[in-house]
Amino acid sequence: MNILSFYLNNFGRIMSALEVHIFIFLVALTFSTVIGMAISIFVTQEGREKIGRIILSVMGAAQSVPSLVIIALIFIFVGIGVKPAIIALVIYGLVPIVFNATSGILSVRPNIIEAGKGMGLTQNQLLWRVKIPIALPVIMGGIRSSSTIIIGSATVAAVIGGGGLGDFIFIGLKLQKPEMLITGAITVSLLAIIVDYIMAKIEKKVVSKGLQIKKT
Amino acid sequence: MIELTNVTKKFGNKIAVNNFSLHIEKGSLTMFIGPSGCGKTTTLRMINRLTPFDKGNIIVNDTPINDVNPVELRRNIGYVIQEIGLFPHLTVFENVAIVPRLLKWEQKKIERRIEEILELVTLNQSFAQKYPLQLSGGEKQRVGLARALAAEPEILLMDEPFGAIDPINRLKLQDSFLEIQEEIKKTIVFVTHDINEAIKLGDKIAIINEGNLIQYDNVSKILSDPANEFVENLLGQDRNIKALSLKKAKDYVLKDGFITVLDTESRESVEKKMKEKNIKIAFALDENNHLKSRFVLEKATETKKQKFIYNPAPWIIERQNNINEALSKMLEAGEKQLPVVNRKKEFVGIIKLSNIFEEVNKKTNIS
Amino acid sequence: MGFYISSRPNIAKYVINVASIMMTIPSLALYGVMVVAFAPFKLGLGIVPSVSAITIYSLLPITRNTYLALNQVKPEMIEAARGIGMSKNQILWKIKIPLSIPVIMSGIRIAVVMGVSVATYASLIAAGGLGYFIFAGIGRANLTMVLVGAILISALGIGVNYILLKVEDWITPKGLKVKR
Question: How far apart are CA B100 and CA B27, in angstroms?
Answer without folding.
Answer: 22
